[in-house]
Amino acid sequence: MEAKDLKKELFRRYEWIDPVTGNLMLHEIQEPQVVYLGNTTHRILDTNGLVHFVPSIGYFGCVLVTQNKDQSKPCNW
User: Fold this and answer.
1) What pTM did the predictor assign?
2) Residue 56 carries which DSSP code?
3) Partners of 50 in the beta sheet?
4) Three-state DSSP class for 11?
5) Positions in the chain whose pLDDT score sits under 70
6) Where are the domains of the chain?
7) Other Cβ atoms closer than 10 A to 69
8) pLDDT at position 71, please?
9) What is the pLDDT of residue 41?
10) How many CA atoms, within 13 angstroms, populate the side-chain half-sphere of residue 67?
11) What does the radius of gyration of the chain's CA atoms come to, in whole angstroms?
12) 66/75 Cα distance (integer angstroms)
């Protein structure tokens, strides 16, 4: 898995449709540190040492909303 630094981000919010229930799922991560990019999932390490597993962008209609700490630089990659 490819790792990318996220320390400049204030938060990340993943939104997708649960394939079983059809419900909108929201998962927000405050102060993400590193994302590990996989084919069908992302793994995000936060400041508490927790790893969050979410669908990769596009899977189950997954979209990503994020905000940098420095809003004058909205994108890092």
Assistant:
1) 0.88
2) P
3) none
4) strand
5) 77
6) 2-68
7) 11
8) 86
9) 96
10) 8
11) 12
12) 9
